[in-house]
Structures
1.
Amino acid sequence: MSRRVPTVLTIAGSDSGGGAGVQADLKTFSALGVYGTSALTAVTAQNTQQVTQVLELPPELVAAQIDAVVSDIGADAVKTGMLATAEIVEVVAAKVREHGLRPLVVDPVMVAKSGARLLREDAVRALRERLLPLATVLTPNLPEAEVLLGRPLTSWDDVREAAEEIVSMGAQAVVMKGGHLPAGAGREGPATDLFYDGQGFHEFTAARVETTSTHGTGCTFASAIAAALAKGESPRGAVALAKAYVTKALQSAYPVGQGRGPVHHFFRFWQPTIGIKNEEQGTGN
């Protein structure tokens, strides 16, 4: 009898450049040994430098994709990314409740690395009120947390208070990604993320990686958490595994494009070679 492989559903946008969104999620799932499925919320035209166009999909199509996956394949965990509109947020929250989709990792994607807005203003309130209370783990960076809470976060004390407030809003746990703290805010040096689950705080630290290949790191981190949860890890244990995975993926990144390239999701399986060798096998004339 064959052993069942854990499955994870990502509900997010498509990145034509392959570095973020559903593409990054599916790469992460494969690298971490779970079967990935997807429900697209939007199609974006983007590369390592910019987002040039976004097409939001109809909410009913998003719902149909979720139903199709869950009715046949199932989902041991779910991760949400770019949800774009309030209507899509509402539909996703409704489907999470209808199908009992847990554990749920919510990555509140709002702005691309290039600066392009990926979540409409009216969708922020819907995410805060409808989806956040359903989250097993919420994974905001500091700018996203500021938008969710409506105030600036300029110190580590602010970050701790924000984590407590987010959990009080209904999330089971939150990881406050500290990479955006300004200089002098009390967390120079290692890259530190703060985990809080209502019971206590835990700081996850790793050496800060100097690289421009940072496109899709948030998607990859949230997807790695979802993959670990699907395998039975606790939220805190899943965050620890995801932190280690993303750090190594950043350290192993190779150049792609002329802007902010992606991390190397498959560093455990292959490393890039230097240059490209074009081998021609001919038989002669």
Note: The radius of gyration is 19 Å.
2.
Amino acid sequence: MDNKIYDVVILGGGPAGLAAGLYAGRSRLSVLILEKGIDGGQIAVTHDIENYPGQSKVDGMTGQELVAPMTEQCKKFGCERVSDTITACDFSGPVKKFVGSKGEYLGKTVIVCTGAMTRSIGCKNEAKYVGKGISYCAVCDANFFEDFEIYVVGGNGIAAEESLYLAGYARKVTMIHKGPALTVSPMLKERLDAEPKIHVLCNEEVEDVGGDELLSEIVLKNTKTGEETVLHADEEDGFFGLFGFTGKKTTGMFDGVLDMEGGYIKTDECMRTNIPGVFAAGDVRVTPLRQVVTACADGAIAAMQCYKYISAQK
């Protein structure tokens, strides 16, 4: 890359990043979107979306179908895109810098849109059943498992909150945790204990999954004894759900640089971080709801704040 200084450098090409690119591009700012994977980020591999307002297919559409027009809009308004893995950042000066495997990228402002935790249960055959029983979003997919059994991987507060949400739909919810006890607050533990649909399996981890076309088999391995147990879906149901709420945070390079809370970036309502000219949008920030629609709104706000910030520097 040359030493071009962009008005806005956006890290992440998911809905938040694409919305930010659209709004910044339409404001006649020079924009660079950095994305190591495919356009759309995690939402691009989502099989069925029903809750994005105004979507062209009311009965559901894939993540790729949803983000493809967003990508084209960004191109229309001049956004550039580079595929690179970013390994470091420097926000100490008036020009912000990202360092990747292919070079350095400079911007007067930056918007961090790296999404929430990277999603993976970590078991064999996981990819085969994503969208066919395996999910990573309770709000997105709970209604597909109305009156079915659901298993939840994770023992932290996020897994507990999602289990409580899923209990409003499922016939039974079982939390699977590899540790000896859940790592949740006393208040959250009380809520779990008070919900008769929720059960907990500790010292267990998901080793493998299987089924014909839909997920109908889960192989558990005891973390103490190594003993394996096979769970089968009810014959009448034919399948069950497996939700994963474990993973690695996407904000490691910002530790000690940006103010964080629980692995997420703290911002104000204008998406501003603790460093002037550095913004965060979408699932990566501390927010009460992580959905495509909220990510897009965050991205739009962040882009317009970049415009205001740059205008004020002139």
Note: The first strand starts at residue 5 and ends at 11.
